[in-house]
Write a structure and sequence with these properties.
mainly alpha, 334 residues, 0% strand
């Protein structure tokens, strides 16, 4: 059974979840040019927005989801409006605009509840859960993740089961329950593999690699990340690839391989900057500062950099990341 890519709608529904983003973009542009109804055009523009978002072409993604929404609104198509708002909210989260992300995703839920497509509602709620989770609201979003996991299991949506398991695993990992997190990432990886969801499998492998590293097995962790990286490159998953590289830096740092970690973090900062992903860029910069401190950077320079990152995280609403910057100050400066 193949995991379905519900965001590819209408004439694009035949596209595999594992289709490369270049292929998705090419097909979506062809459908947009040939569209004869508002529904066809809204669906094509949605796919353009999603392909461009994942490729890091954020300005074009912004134009495409807005055009999809306008087309859907003019046709009074609540389902298509919900999908466009979901895409816009997801893009806003990717760009670090969390207040806007919450607003757009909330509107997406409301539009979906007026419509007829339960998957649009599921995606919008999942977007809200993920936005809260990356900001550090683990208690509030755990309940929503678990609700969505139950719904996904009941209706037999393996891709959604994988997403929910990975989100819940991340929360357990942040709470220090590494055994539960590893079990959930492993289950997600198996379901994704069985359902031929290569994107979900790559994210699960990254989570397993993180926990494998925390268990003191860096070489095994690096092998897992190399496996996931091949998928990211084949599918052109630019954001997932950058997060994969950031995790590689984390593994090297934990292993005391600070010079290698510094090089990886430095390159990853550039990757995130290129695709306009400020959260990832700041987290990679945190790793870079820590690696340089371990290699003898002046304490005053380290302190200034960590204070700057703490302020940036706090201003952005990334509460868990702000705590990480404070923990780094205690770890490195006493």
């Amino acid at each position: 059974m193949h995991a379905k890519a519900d965001e590819y709608r209408g004439g694009l529904a035949a596209l595999s979840v594992n289709a490369s983003l270049d292929e998705v973009l090419e097909e979506a542009e062809r459908h947009d040019a040939a569209a004869t109804t508002p529904g066809e055009r809204a669906g094509a523009l949605l796919a353009i927005a999603e392909a461009c978002r994942r490729l890091g072409r954020v300005e074009r993604a912004e134009r495409a989801w807005r055009a999809s929404y306008r087309t859907a609104r003019e046709a009074v198509d609540q389902d298509a409006m919900a999908w466009a708002l979901w895409s816009g909210g997801t893009l806003a989260r990717q760009r670090g605009r969390y207040v806007l992300a919450h607003r757009l995703l909330t509107h997406a839920v409301e539009a979906a509840e007026r419509g007829t497509d339960p998957m649009a509602r599921g995606y919008a709620l999942a977007g809200l859960a993920e936005t809260g989770r990356v900001q550090g609201d683990f208690a509030g979003t755990l309940r929503l993740h678990e609700q969505l996991l139950d719904e996904a299991r009941q209706i037999g949506q393996p891709r959604h089961v994988v997403w929910a398991l990975e989100g819940i695993a991340q929360i357990h990992r942040h709470h220090g329950d590494h055994d539960t997190a590893l079990a959930m990432f492993t289950e997600a990886c198996q379901i994704a593999t069985d359902g031929d969801d290569q994107r979900g499998r790559a994210w699960a492998l990254r989570g397993i690699a993180d926990l494998t590293s925390l268990r003191g097995e860096p070489d095994e962790a690096l092998d897992l990340l190399a496996d996931a990286e091949r998928t990211c490159r084949d599918m052109r998953l630019e954001a997932a690839l950058a997060y994969n590289h950031k995790m590689r830096g984390n593994v090297l740092y934990r292993a005391g391989r600070y010079a290698e970690a510094e090089r990886v973090y430095r390159d990853t900062v550039e990757e995130f900057t290129r695709i306009s992903e400020p959260r990832g860029e700041a987290l990679a910069r945190l790793g870079l500062v820590k690696s340089r401190a371990r290699r003898g950077a002046p304490p005053a320079e380290t302190d200034q950099a960590l204070l700057g990152l703490h302020a940036r995280f706090t201003e952005s609403g990334l509460h868990h990341a702000a705590d990480m910057a404070q923990a780094a100050r205690r770890e490195l400066l006493g």
